[in-house]
Amino acid sequence: MTSRTLAAIAVAGMLGSATVSGQRGPAAAATKLPPAVLAMACAPKAALEVPSTPLRVTGGQDSSVRHSHSPGDIITINGGSQNGIEVGQEYYTRRVLVSDREKITRETPATIVTTSWIRVWAVDDTMSLATITHACETVDIGDYLEPFSVPEPPVVSSNKPKPQRDNYGHVLTGEARRRSFGKGDFFLLDRGSDHGITKGAQFVLYRNKVQAENFLYDIGEAVAVEVTSESSTLQVTVSRDAIQSGDLVALRK
User: In a 3-state reduction of DSSP, which class is residue 175?
Assistant: First the structure.
């Protein structure tokens, strides 16, 4: 009996006789996570090289082929017990976004969008079924999986040192490669722990108007919510105007 047949039997056994065109999973339980934590879980990340994506969303349990899925839908993933997957495990689903025809490099990083996190519902040898616990946006065929963990909000000091000068990072992109941001939004920074940044670090954001004999314009503030060696995810805490890709970022240190 093939894995596909076993998956079909699992669905039939769990759902009984379905009379709708799309088979639905159990209603997603409330996450009970604070809004700030939910927002952090959905925040974008940067990728300086092509991520490994062995586990992916490969379809759904519907009478027709659908590319996108939402909470309540049953989705299929291309891994099962042979991959160490067990019922009840949770995973993020993520998507790689790149600029047209650009390779993923340190100079042209990709944006990693978190589309949801899911809970495994049924498993056979080579495939599994899962339901969407929380959706950041639609879950599409091809989204890849990473183990889920609840993000921890950063501890932000009440002390605000002066921002460093002449050592500026730059605002990159945000969710869905957005290039404009306001208070509460997340964006990517081209600096990380290799540059002295830690989770909870505070920043001042500047606009360089390229005007002779004039100061940089203080456009806002941000805090680091996630840090890797060469990039960070920041959340805007103060916005005096729209913050844009290319604006300067100075670490308070």
Answer: helix
> Burial letters for 56-88: b for 16+ Cβ neighbours within 10 Å, e otherwise?
ebebbbeeeebeebebebbbbbbbbeeeebeee
Phi and psi (nearest 5°) for 30?
-60, 135
CB 199 within 8 A of CB 209: no
Half-sphere exposure of 47 (CA within 13 A, CB side): 21
Instruction: Give pLDDT tens digits for 14-25.
Output: 444 333 334 555
C-alpha 85/C-alpha 151 separation (Å) is 22
Q: Read off the DSSP letter of residue 36.
A: H
Name the residue ranges covered by the structural domains of the chain.
18-147, 169-251
Contacts of 67 (CB under 8 A, 6+ apart): 140, 141
**Taking the mean position of all CA atoms in its chain, how far away is CA 207?**
27
Q: What is the pLDDT of residue 60?
A: 92
What global pTM score does this model have?
Answer: 0.83
Which CATH code is given to the segment(s) 169-251?
2.40.10.410
Whole-angstrom distance, CA of residue 108 vs CA of residue 111: 10
What is the distance between the alpha carbons of residues 218 and 72, in angstroms, rounded to a whole number?
45
